[in-house]
Amino acid sequence: QVQLVEPGGGLVQAGGSLRLSCTASERLYSSYAMGWFRQAPGKEREAVAGIRWGTGYTYYADFAKGRFTISRDRSENTADLQMSNLSPDDTAVYYCTGGSRTRPPRETWGQGTQVTVSS
To answer: What are phi and psi of 15, to 5 degrees?
Structure first.
């Protein structure tokens, strides 16, 4: 089974940018998808973005549109989430995911990485 590793995360000031990266443990098929969820303290986990491995088709939650960009590097088996114009509301644990859905997938989960945006 594919394993997902997501180093990174960190602390950034409001208005700043941060890039998250997720590496899959093995070569992925074109039908596979990777994505990101997040969970803020006291809130339910919510979808952020997803990307289809083969076509590059992307999905974004409304709050992510225009600020976040998901991309993948098929040669490196990585999926990145570039986040810009961050606000304290974006503070959460971000989880990389993999599976069959693009919106985003839920079958496989990374360990999560903390993103903190200070005001």
So the answer is: 90, -10
- Tell me what percent of the residues of the chain surpass a pLDDT of 70: 100
Three-state DSSP string of the chain: CCCEECCCCEEEECCCCEEEEEEECCCCCCCCEEEEEEECCCCCCEEEEEEECCCCCEEECCCCCCCEEEEEECCCCEEEEEECCCCHHHCEEEEEEEECCCCCCCCEECCCEEEEEEC
What is the structure's pLDDT at 7?
A: 86
Regions in the chain scoring below 70 on pLDDT: none
